[in-house]
Amino acid sequence: MRNAIYRLWMTALIIMLIAPCLYAQKATNPIIYADVPDISIERVGNSYYMSSTTMHMSPGVPIMKSNDLVTWKTVGYAYDTLGNVDALNLTNGKNAYGQGSWASSIRFHNGTYYVSTFSANTNKTHIYSTKNIEKGPWKARSFAPDLGDHSLFFDDDGKAYMISGSGDLRLVELKNDLSGIKLGGTDKIIIKKAGEPSGGTGLGPEDSQLFKINGKYYLFNITWPKGSMRTVIIHRADKITGPYEGRIGLQDLGVAQGGLVEAPNGAWYAYLFRDYGSVGRIPYLVPVKWVDGWPVLGINGKVPETLDLPAGKGLIPGIAASDEFARKKGERALPLIWQWNHNPDNSLWSVTARKGYLRLTTGRIDADFLTARNSLTQRTIGPVCSGTVSLDVSNMKDGDFAGLGLLQKNYGLVGVKITGDSKAVVMINASTGKPLEAQKIPLNQKVVYFKAECNFTNRKDVANFFYSLDGKTWIPLGTQLKMAYTFPHFMGYRFALFNYATKNIGGAADFDFFHITDSISPEK
Q: For the Beta-xylosidase C-terminal Concanavalin A-like domain, which residue ranges apply (predicted)?
Protein backbone atom coordinates (compact mmCIF):
# COMPACT_ATOMS: atom_id res chain seq x y z
CA MET A 1 0.00 0.00 0.00
CA ARG A 2 2.80 2.37 0.94
CA ASN A 3 4.58 1.63 -2.37
CA ALA A 4 1.38 2.31 -4.33
CA ILE A 5 0.88 5.65 -2.58
CA TYR A 6 4.52 6.53 -3.26
CA ARG A 7 4.14 5.68 -6.96
CA LEU A 8 0.98 7.82 -7.20
CA TRP A 9 2.74 10.69 -5.47
CA MET A 10 5.74 10.46 -7.81
CA THR A 11 3.46 10.28 -10.88
CA ALA A 12 1.62 13.42 -9.75
CA LEU A 13 4.92 15.20 -9.12
CA ILE A 14 6.22 14.30 -12.59
CA ILE A 15 3.00 15.53 -14.20
CA MET A 16 3.27 18.80 -12.27
CA LEU A 17 6.85 19.24 -13.43
CA ILE A 18 6.36 18.44 -17.11
CA ALA A 19 2.94 20.05 -17.57
CA PRO A 20 4.36 23.58 -18.01
CA CYS A 21 6.78 22.23 -20.59
CA LEU A 22 4.01 20.50 -22.51
CA TYR A 23 1.91 23.66 -22.33
CA ALA A 24 4.82 25.76 -23.58
CA GLN A 25 5.31 23.47 -26.59
CA LYS A 26 1.84 24.24 -27.90
CA ALA A 27 0.92 27.14 -30.12
CA THR A 28 -0.93 29.97 -28.43
CA ASN A 29 -3.48 32.52 -29.57
CA PRO A 30 -3.09 35.01 -31.05
CA ILE A 31 -0.87 33.26 -33.55
CA ILE A 32 0.39 36.66 -34.77
CA TYR A 33 0.45 39.48 -32.20
CA ALA A 34 0.66 42.19 -34.88
CA ASP A 35 -1.53 44.02 -37.35
CA VAL A 36 -2.28 41.37 -40.00
CA PRO A 37 -5.99 41.89 -40.71
CA ASP A 38 -8.47 40.57 -43.28
CA ILE A 39 -6.51 37.38 -43.74
CA SER A 40 -7.18 34.83 -46.45
CA ILE A 41 -5.33 31.50 -46.43
CA GLU A 42 -4.79 28.82 -49.08
CA ARG A 43 -2.91 25.55 -48.54
CA VAL A 44 -0.98 24.09 -51.45
CA GLY A 45 0.63 20.76 -50.56
CA ASN A 46 2.28 21.19 -47.18
CA SER A 47 2.64 24.97 -47.48
CA TYR A 48 0.16 27.62 -46.40
CA TYR A 49 0.00 31.02 -48.08
CA MET A 50 -1.74 34.01 -46.55
CA SER A 51 -2.67 37.41 -47.95
CA SER A 52 -3.60 40.38 -45.80
CA THR A 53 -4.52 44.08 -45.89
CA THR A 54 -1.99 46.90 -45.73
CA MET A 55 -4.16 49.57 -47.35
CA HIS A 56 -2.11 52.71 -48.19
CA MET A 57 1.26 50.99 -47.81
CA SER A 58 3.55 50.25 -50.76
CA PRO A 59 4.24 47.55 -51.82
CA GLY A 60 0.84 46.08 -50.98
CA VAL A 61 -1.13 42.90 -50.28
CA PRO A 62 1.63 41.02 -48.47
CA ILE A 63 2.02 37.31 -49.14
CA MET A 64 3.13 35.25 -46.14
CA LYS A 65 4.13 31.59 -45.93
CA SER A 66 3.95 29.00 -43.17
CA ASN A 67 4.52 25.27 -42.89
CA ASP A 68 2.54 24.90 -39.66
CA LEU A 69 -0.13 27.67 -39.61
CA VAL A 70 1.69 29.27 -36.67
CA THR A 71 5.06 30.70 -37.72
CA TRP A 72 4.76 32.99 -40.75
CA LYS A 73 7.26 34.73 -43.01
CA THR A 74 6.68 37.46 -45.57
CA VAL A 75 7.67 36.10 -49.00
CA GLY A 76 6.32 38.76 -51.35
CA TYR A 77 3.64 41.27 -52.35
CA ALA A 78 0.96 41.16 -55.00
CA TYR A 79 1.91 44.63 -56.27
CA ASP A 80 4.53 47.35 -55.92
CA THR A 81 2.07 50.21 -56.38
CA LEU A 82 -1.72 49.95 -56.61
CA GLY A 83 -2.27 53.02 -58.75
CA ASN A 84 -0.80 56.37 -59.73
CA VAL A 85 -3.24 58.82 -58.17
CA ASP A 86 -2.69 61.72 -55.79
CA ALA A 87 -4.19 59.98 -52.76
CA LEU A 88 -1.91 56.94 -53.12
CA ASN A 89 1.11 59.13 -53.94
CA LEU A 90 0.51 61.42 -50.95
CA THR A 91 0.57 64.43 -53.27
CA ASN A 92 -1.43 67.61 -53.81
CA GLY A 93 -2.81 67.53 -50.29
CA LYS A 94 -4.45 64.12 -50.66
CA ASN A 95 -3.79 60.87 -48.82
CA ALA A 96 -5.06 57.29 -48.70
CA TYR A 97 -4.96 56.76 -44.94
CA GLY A 98 -7.55 54.11 -44.11
CA GLN A 99 -8.07 53.46 -47.82
CA GLY A 100 -5.77 51.92 -50.43
CA SER A 101 -6.49 48.23 -50.97
CA TRP A 102 -8.72 46.35 -48.56
CA ALA A 103 -9.66 42.73 -47.80
CA SER A 104 -8.02 40.34 -50.27
CA SER A 105 -8.82 36.83 -51.40
CA ILE A 106 -6.13 34.25 -52.20
CA ARG A 107 -6.80 31.18 -54.36
CA PHE A 108 -4.87 28.41 -56.16
CA HIS A 109 -6.47 27.16 -59.37
CA ASN A 110 -5.07 25.00 -62.19
CA GLY A 111 -1.46 25.64 -61.19
CA THR A 112 -1.83 29.40 -60.80
CA TYR A 113 -2.06 31.54 -57.66
CA TYR A 114 -4.57 34.38 -57.64
CA VAL A 115 -4.85 37.27 -55.21
CA SER A 116 -7.70 39.74 -55.58
CA THR A 117 -8.52 42.97 -53.79
CA PHE A 118 -10.39 46.23 -54.37
CA SER A 119 -9.89 49.94 -53.79
CA ALA A 120 -12.02 53.05 -53.48
CA ASN A 121 -8.97 55.09 -54.57
CA THR A 122 -8.89 53.44 -57.99
CA ASN A 123 -12.61 52.52 -58.02
CA LYS A 124 -11.59 49.13 -59.35
CA THR A 125 -11.37 45.46 -58.51
CA HIS A 126 -7.81 44.17 -58.87
CA ILE A 127 -6.72 40.58 -59.60
CA TYR A 128 -3.07 39.52 -59.53
CA SER A 129 -1.83 36.10 -60.66
CA THR A 130 1.43 34.18 -60.77
CA LYS A 131 2.75 30.66 -61.27
CA ASN A 132 5.37 31.21 -58.56
CA ILE A 133 3.87 32.87 -55.50
CA GLU A 134 7.24 33.31 -53.78
CA LYS A 135 9.21 34.73 -56.70
CA GLY A 136 6.64 36.06 -59.16
CA PRO A 137 6.31 37.76 -61.56
CA TRP A 138 2.70 38.86 -61.01
CA LYS A 139 0.24 39.60 -63.80
CA ALA A 140 -2.18 42.43 -62.99
CA ARG A 141 -5.79 42.79 -64.13
CA SER A 142 -8.30 45.40 -63.02
CA PHE A 143 -11.84 46.36 -63.83
CA ALA A 144 -14.68 48.53 -62.60
CA PRO A 145 -16.55 48.54 -60.32
CA ASP A 146 -14.74 47.92 -57.04
CA LEU A 147 -16.45 44.80 -55.66
CA GLY A 148 -16.13 45.44 -51.94
CA ASP A 149 -15.10 42.74 -49.45
CA HIS A 150 -15.34 40.09 -52.12
CA SER A 151 -14.44 36.42 -52.25
CA LEU A 152 -12.84 35.12 -55.44
CA PHE A 153 -14.10 31.62 -56.19
CA PHE A 154 -13.37 29.03 -58.89
CA ASP A 155 -16.06 26.39 -59.18
CA ASP A 156 -15.58 22.80 -60.32
CA ASP A 157 -17.02 23.61 -63.75
CA GLY A 158 -14.26 26.15 -64.38
CA LYS A 159 -16.44 29.21 -63.91
CA ALA A 160 -15.07 32.05 -61.79
CA TYR A 161 -17.20 34.16 -59.46
CA MET A 162 -17.05 36.87 -56.86
CA ILE A 163 -19.37 37.31 -53.90
CA SER A 164 -19.37 40.82 -52.51
CA GLY A 165 -21.37 43.40 -50.62
CA SER A 166 -22.67 44.09 -47.14
CA GLY A 167 -26.19 43.27 -45.98
CA ASP A 168 -27.43 41.86 -49.28
CA LEU A 169 -24.75 39.65 -50.81
CA ARG A 170 -24.22 39.67 -54.57
CA LEU A 171 -22.84 36.88 -56.77
CA VAL A 172 -21.31 37.86 -60.12
CA GLU A 173 -19.73 35.64 -62.75
CA LEU A 174 -16.40 36.78 -64.18
CA LYS A 175 -15.11 36.58 -67.72
CA ASN A 176 -12.93 33.58 -68.49
CA ASP A 177 -9.82 35.78 -68.49
CA LEU A 178 -10.92 37.50 -65.22
CA SER A 179 -10.81 40.88 -66.93
CA GLY A 180 -14.28 41.89 -65.76
CA ILE A 181 -17.84 40.86 -65.02
CA LYS A 182 -19.22 38.51 -67.67
CA LEU A 183 -21.97 40.07 -69.76
CA GLY A 184 -25.00 37.81 -69.56
CA GLY A 185 -23.43 35.70 -66.82
CA THR A 186 -24.79 35.11 -63.33
CA ASP A 187 -25.39 38.38 -61.51
CA LYS A 188 -27.83 38.21 -58.61
CA ILE A 189 -28.39 38.77 -54.93
CA ILE A 190 -28.00 35.33 -53.41
CA ILE A 191 -28.68 36.26 -49.76
CA LYS A 192 -30.85 39.15 -48.65
CA LYS A 193 -30.35 40.59 -45.19
CA ALA A 194 -27.52 38.14 -44.65
CA GLY A 195 -26.97 39.34 -41.08
CA GLU A 196 -30.24 37.89 -39.80
CA PRO A 197 -28.64 34.80 -38.15
CA SER A 198 -26.91 37.14 -35.68
CA GLY A 199 -29.83 39.50 -35.14
CA GLY A 200 -30.03 41.36 -38.41
CA THR A 201 -28.97 44.79 -37.12
CA GLY A 202 -25.64 46.51 -36.65
CA LEU A 203 -22.57 46.14 -38.88
CA GLY A 204 -22.41 43.79 -41.81
CA PRO A 205 -22.31 41.15 -42.92
CA GLU A 206 -18.99 41.87 -44.61
CA ASP A 207 -15.87 40.17 -45.96
CA SER A 208 -17.33 37.16 -47.76
CA GLN A 209 -15.15 34.07 -48.01
CA LEU A 210 -16.63 31.16 -49.98
CA PHE A 211 -15.54 27.52 -49.88
CA LYS A 212 -16.79 24.30 -51.49
CA ILE A 213 -16.40 21.27 -49.23
CA ASN A 214 -17.84 17.84 -49.94
CA GLY A 215 -20.14 19.23 -52.58
CA LYS A 216 -21.63 22.02 -50.44
CA TYR A 217 -20.94 25.75 -50.53
CA TYR A 218 -19.99 27.44 -47.25
CA LEU A 219 -19.94 31.22 -46.98
CA PHE A 220 -18.23 32.99 -44.05
CA ASN A 221 -19.02 36.60 -43.09
CA ILE A 222 -18.48 38.93 -40.16
CA THR A 223 -21.28 40.88 -38.47
CA TRP A 224 -21.43 43.10 -35.42
CA PRO A 225 -24.89 42.91 -33.82
CA LYS A 226 -25.92 45.93 -31.77
CA GLY A 227 -25.08 45.47 -28.10
CA SER A 228 -22.92 42.43 -28.80
CA MET A 229 -19.53 41.73 -30.40
CA ARG A 230 -18.01 40.95 -33.74
CA THR A 231 -19.50 37.63 -34.80
CA VAL A 232 -18.86 34.92 -37.40
CA ILE A 233 -21.90 33.87 -39.42
CA ILE A 234 -21.92 30.92 -41.81
CA HIS A 235 -24.31 30.18 -44.66
CA ARG A 236 -24.42 26.96 -46.65
CA ALA A 237 -26.12 25.80 -49.83
CA ASP A 238 -26.16 22.94 -52.32
CA LYS A 239 -25.84 25.34 -55.26
CA ILE A 240 -23.68 28.44 -55.53
CA THR A 241 -26.78 30.48 -56.35
CA GLY A 242 -28.58 29.22 -53.25
CA PRO A 243 -30.88 28.97 -51.47
CA TYR A 244 -28.66 29.49 -48.41
CA GLU A 245 -29.36 28.72 -44.77
CA GLY A 246 -27.39 30.52 -42.07
CA ARG A 247 -26.32 30.34 -38.45
CA ILE A 248 -23.89 31.90 -36.00
CA GLY A 249 -20.47 30.29 -36.38
CA LEU A 250 -18.66 31.90 -33.44
CA GLN A 251 -19.38 34.65 -30.94
CA ASP A 252 -16.50 34.95 -28.46
CA LEU A 253 -13.96 37.67 -27.63
CA GLY A 254 -14.86 39.51 -30.83
CA VAL A 255 -12.72 37.03 -32.78
CA ALA A 256 -14.24 37.02 -36.27
CA GLN A 257 -13.76 37.55 -40.04
CA GLY A 258 -11.98 34.86 -41.97
CA GLY A 259 -12.54 31.39 -43.29
CA LEU A 260 -11.58 27.72 -43.28
CA VAL A 261 -8.41 25.79 -44.01
CA GLU A 262 -7.69 22.05 -43.83
CA ALA A 263 -4.32 20.74 -42.65
CA PRO A 264 -2.61 17.83 -44.46
CA ASN A 265 -3.59 15.52 -41.58
CA GLY A 266 -7.29 16.28 -42.08
CA ALA A 267 -7.64 18.68 -39.15
CA TRP A 268 -9.68 21.82 -39.85
CA TYR A 269 -9.16 25.34 -38.55
CA ALA A 270 -10.86 28.67 -38.89
CA TYR A 271 -8.50 31.60 -39.38
CA LEU A 272 -9.92 34.81 -37.91
CA PHE A 273 -8.76 38.07 -36.36
CA ARG A 274 -9.49 40.20 -33.32
CA ASP A 275 -9.47 43.96 -32.88
CA TYR A 276 -6.91 44.51 -30.12
CA GLY A 277 -6.32 48.18 -29.55
CA SER A 278 -3.42 50.13 -30.96
CA VAL A 279 -1.34 47.14 -32.06
CA GLY A 280 -4.08 46.54 -34.62
CA ARG A 281 -6.10 43.54 -35.78
CA ILE A 282 -4.37 40.32 -34.77
CA PRO A 283 -4.90 36.79 -36.22
CA TYR A 284 -6.28 33.83 -34.28
CA LEU A 285 -6.71 30.16 -35.13
CA VAL A 286 -9.76 28.25 -33.93
CA PRO A 287 -10.13 24.45 -34.23
CA VAL A 288 -13.10 23.22 -36.25
CA LYS A 289 -15.17 20.03 -35.98
CA TRP A 290 -17.78 18.97 -38.52
CA VAL A 291 -21.23 18.16 -37.13
CA ASP A 292 -24.21 17.38 -39.39
CA GLY A 293 -22.52 19.05 -42.33
CA TRP A 294 -21.72 22.27 -40.46
CA PRO A 295 -18.31 23.53 -39.34
CA VAL A 296 -18.44 23.99 -35.56
CA LEU A 297 -15.87 26.55 -34.42
CA GLY A 298 -14.01 26.62 -31.11
CA ILE A 299 -13.99 24.50 -27.98
CA ASN A 300 -17.52 24.54 -26.59
CA GLY A 301 -18.07 27.73 -28.54
CA LYS A 302 -14.97 29.43 -27.11
CA VAL A 303 -11.69 30.54 -28.62
CA PRO A 304 -8.95 28.41 -27.03
CA GLU A 305 -5.78 29.91 -25.60
CA THR A 306 -3.67 26.99 -26.82
CA LEU A 307 -3.80 24.91 -29.99
CA ASP A 308 -2.77 21.39 -30.85
CA LEU A 309 -0.03 22.77 -33.06
CA PRO A 310 3.71 23.35 -32.53
CA ALA A 311 4.70 26.48 -30.63
CA GLY A 312 5.47 29.49 -32.76
CA LYS A 313 9.07 30.58 -33.32
CA GLY A 314 8.34 34.26 -32.75
CA LEU A 315 7.51 37.19 -34.99
CA ILE A 316 11.12 38.23 -35.63
CA PRO A 317 12.29 38.05 -38.43
CA GLY A 318 9.21 36.76 -40.27
CA ILE A 319 6.76 39.55 -39.41
CA ALA A 320 9.18 42.24 -38.19
CA ALA A 321 12.96 42.41 -38.56
CA SER A 322 16.09 44.39 -37.86
CA ASP A 323 18.08 45.86 -40.74
CA GLU A 324 21.71 46.97 -40.91
CA PHE A 325 21.14 48.48 -44.39
CA ALA A 326 24.23 46.62 -45.60
CA ARG A 327 23.55 44.86 -48.91
CA LYS A 328 25.40 42.07 -50.63
CA LYS A 329 25.39 41.71 -54.40
CA GLY A 330 22.06 40.38 -55.62
CA GLU A 331 20.15 41.22 -52.45
CA ARG A 332 17.00 43.30 -52.47
CA ALA A 333 17.49 46.99 -51.82
CA LEU A 334 14.92 46.67 -49.03
CA PRO A 335 13.93 43.43 -47.30
CA LEU A 336 10.28 42.44 -47.71
CA ILE A 337 9.51 43.40 -44.13
CA TRP A 338 9.60 47.10 -45.09
CA GLN A 339 6.74 49.08 -46.63
CA TRP A 340 6.56 52.74 -47.57
CA ASN A 341 3.89 55.01 -46.18
CA HIS A 342 2.08 55.56 -49.53
CA ASN A 343 3.81 55.23 -52.90
CA PRO A 344 7.44 56.35 -52.62
CA ASP A 345 9.44 58.70 -54.80
CA ASN A 346 12.17 56.21 -55.65
CA SER A 347 14.60 58.94 -56.67
CA LEU A 348 14.80 60.19 -53.10
CA TRP A 349 15.94 57.12 -51.17
CA SER A 350 18.95 54.84 -51.46
CA VAL A 351 20.94 52.11 -49.71
CA THR A 352 23.89 52.59 -52.08
CA ALA A 353 24.52 56.35 -51.97
CA ARG A 354 26.30 55.72 -48.69
CA LYS A 355 27.30 52.11 -48.20
CA GLY A 356 25.69 50.53 -45.13
CA TYR A 357 23.13 53.31 -44.68
CA LEU A 358 19.58 54.09 -45.68
CA ARG A 359 19.58 57.63 -47.06
CA LEU A 360 16.31 59.57 -47.13
CA THR A 361 16.60 62.78 -49.15
CA THR A 362 13.98 65.53 -49.14
CA GLY A 363 12.42 66.56 -52.44
CA ARG A 364 9.60 68.85 -51.37
CA ILE A 365 8.34 70.93 -48.47
CA ASP A 366 6.01 69.17 -46.03
CA ALA A 367 4.02 70.42 -43.08
CA ASP A 368 4.33 67.46 -40.74
CA PHE A 369 5.04 63.77 -40.20
CA LEU A 370 1.74 62.52 -41.67
CA THR A 371 2.14 64.41 -44.93
CA ALA A 372 5.82 63.55 -45.37
CA ARG A 373 6.61 61.28 -48.31
CA ASN A 374 9.10 58.39 -48.21
CA SER A 375 8.63 57.37 -44.59
CA LEU A 376 9.80 53.75 -44.35
CA THR A 377 7.72 51.56 -42.06
CA GLN A 378 7.23 48.15 -40.55
CA ARG A 379 4.82 46.72 -38.01
CA THR A 380 5.09 46.99 -34.28
CA ILE A 381 4.54 43.66 -32.49
CA GLY A 382 3.03 42.64 -29.18
CA PRO A 383 2.84 42.23 -26.35
CA VAL A 384 5.88 44.57 -26.18
CA CYS A 385 8.53 45.71 -28.61
CA SER A 386 11.33 48.19 -29.03
CA GLY A 387 12.68 49.87 -32.15
CA THR A 388 16.08 51.59 -32.27
CA VAL A 389 17.86 53.62 -34.94
CA SER A 390 21.21 55.31 -35.43
CA LEU A 391 20.94 58.60 -37.31
CA ASP A 392 23.70 60.69 -38.91
CA VAL A 393 22.50 64.27 -39.48
CA SER A 394 25.63 65.56 -41.28
CA ASN A 395 23.84 66.13 -44.58
CA MET A 396 20.59 67.60 -43.29
CA LYS A 397 19.60 71.18 -44.10
CA ASP A 398 18.00 74.10 -42.30
CA GLY A 399 14.35 73.20 -41.58
CA ASP A 400 14.82 69.44 -41.88
CA PHE A 401 13.34 67.04 -39.33
CA ALA A 402 14.39 63.35 -39.29
CA GLY A 403 14.15 60.47 -36.87
CA LEU A 404 12.02 57.59 -35.63
CA GLY A 405 8.24 57.73 -35.39
CA LEU A 406 5.30 55.58 -34.38
CA LEU A 407 2.89 56.07 -37.26
CA GLN A 408 -0.84 56.49 -36.69
CA LYS A 409 -3.11 59.53 -36.57
CA ASN A 410 -2.19 60.06 -32.90
CA TYR A 411 1.49 59.57 -33.56
CA GLY A 412 4.63 60.02 -31.52
CA LEU A 413 8.15 60.62 -32.74
CA VAL A 414 11.69 61.50 -31.77
CA GLY A 415 14.17 63.13 -34.09
CA VAL A 416 16.57 65.92 -34.92
CA LYS A 417 15.40 69.36 -36.03
CA ILE A 418 17.80 71.62 -37.87
CA THR A 419 17.29 75.35 -37.30
CA GLY A 420 19.88 77.49 -39.04
CA ASP A 421 23.25 76.20 -37.84
CA SER A 422 21.90 74.57 -34.69
CA LYS A 423 20.59 71.09 -34.06
CA ALA A 424 18.15 69.85 -31.43
CA VAL A 425 16.74 66.53 -30.28
CA VAL A 426 12.94 66.79 -30.23
CA MET A 427 10.02 64.63 -29.11
CA ILE A 428 6.56 65.21 -30.62
CA ASN A 429 3.46 63.76 -28.92
CA ALA A 430 0.14 63.68 -30.81
CA SER A 431 -1.85 61.62 -28.27
CA THR A 432 -4.61 64.22 -28.39
CA GLY A 433 -4.78 64.16 -32.17
CA LYS A 434 -2.73 67.37 -32.37
CA PRO A 435 1.09 67.27 -32.41
CA LEU A 436 2.73 68.96 -29.43
CA GLU A 437 6.46 69.49 -28.89
CA ALA A 438 6.99 67.75 -25.56
CA GLN A 439 10.73 68.33 -25.20
CA LYS A 440 13.64 69.90 -27.08
CA ILE A 441 17.31 69.50 -26.20
CA PRO A 442 20.33 71.05 -28.01
CA LEU A 443 22.49 68.56 -29.91
CA ASN A 444 26.20 69.12 -30.45
CA GLN A 445 27.19 66.06 -32.46
CA LYS A 446 26.41 64.51 -35.82
CA VAL A 447 25.33 61.01 -34.79
CA VAL A 448 22.50 60.33 -32.36
CA TYR A 449 20.45 57.26 -31.42
CA PHE A 450 16.71 57.02 -30.88
CA LYS A 451 14.48 54.35 -29.37
CA ALA A 452 10.71 53.84 -29.16
CA GLU A 453 9.27 51.25 -26.77
CA CYS A 454 5.67 50.01 -27.15
CA ASN A 455 3.62 48.21 -24.51
CA PHE A 456 0.44 46.59 -25.83
CA THR A 457 0.01 44.18 -22.89
CA ASN A 458 -3.68 43.86 -22.03
CA ARG A 459 -4.30 46.90 -24.25
CA LYS A 460 -2.12 49.12 -22.12
CA ASP A 461 -1.25 50.89 -25.39
CA VAL A 462 1.51 53.23 -24.29
CA ALA A 463 4.89 54.11 -25.77
CA ASN A 464 7.98 55.76 -24.36
CA PHE A 465 10.78 57.45 -26.27
CA PHE A 466 14.51 57.75 -25.60
CA TYR A 467 17.67 59.18 -27.11
CA SER A 468 21.33 58.36 -26.65
CA LEU A 469 24.57 60.09 -27.52
CA ASP A 470 26.63 56.90 -27.54
CA GLY A 471 24.14 54.09 -28.24
CA LYS A 472 24.60 52.73 -24.73
CA THR A 473 23.17 55.15 -22.19
CA TRP A 474 19.52 55.88 -22.89
CA ILE A 475 17.82 59.06 -21.71
CA PRO A 476 14.00 59.37 -21.59
CA LEU A 477 12.71 62.05 -23.93
CA GLY A 478 9.40 63.87 -23.89
CA THR A 479 6.14 62.45 -22.58
CA GLN A 480 4.50 59.06 -22.74
CA LEU A 481 2.45 58.48 -25.88
CA LYS A 482 -1.05 57.14 -25.30
CA MET A 483 -1.60 55.11 -28.44
CA ALA A 484 -5.05 54.77 -30.01
CA TYR A 485 -6.39 52.78 -32.96
CA THR A 486 -8.14 55.46 -34.99
CA PHE A 487 -10.48 54.82 -37.88
CA PRO A 488 -9.07 57.56 -40.10
CA HIS A 489 -5.95 55.38 -40.36
CA PHE A 490 -7.52 51.98 -39.64
CA MET A 491 -4.13 50.41 -38.96
CA GLY A 492 -1.99 49.34 -36.04
CA TYR A 493 1.00 51.49 -35.07
CA ARG A 494 4.10 51.16 -37.22
CA PHE A 495 7.72 52.09 -36.70
CA ALA A 496 8.63 54.75 -39.27
CA LEU A 497 11.99 56.15 -40.36
CA PHE A 498 11.38 59.64 -41.70
CA ASN A 499 13.00 62.80 -43.03
CA TYR A 500 11.08 65.82 -44.27
CA ALA A 501 11.87 69.42 -45.15
CA THR A 502 10.06 72.53 -43.95
CA LYS A 503 12.31 75.15 -45.63
CA ASN A 504 14.79 73.76 -48.17
CA ILE A 505 14.91 70.59 -50.24
CA GLY A 506 17.88 68.32 -50.88
CA GLY A 507 18.87 67.54 -47.31
CA ALA A 508 19.67 63.92 -46.48
CA ALA A 509 19.30 61.82 -43.32
CA ASP A 510 21.46 58.70 -43.04
CA PHE A 511 20.20 55.77 -40.96
CA ASP A 512 22.93 53.29 -40.02
CA PHE A 513 20.55 50.62 -38.70
CA PHE A 514 17.11 49.76 -37.41
CA HIS A 515 16.91 47.20 -34.61
CA ILE A 516 13.72 45.64 -33.28
CA THR A 517 13.35 43.45 -30.19
CA ASP A 518 10.42 41.86 -28.39
CA SER A 519 11.37 43.44 -25.07
CA ILE A 520 11.29 46.85 -23.39
CA SER A 521 12.99 48.50 -20.43
CA PRO A 522 11.78 47.45 -16.96
CA GLU A 523 9.27 49.86 -15.49
CA LYS A 524 10.67 51.99 -12.70
A: 331-516
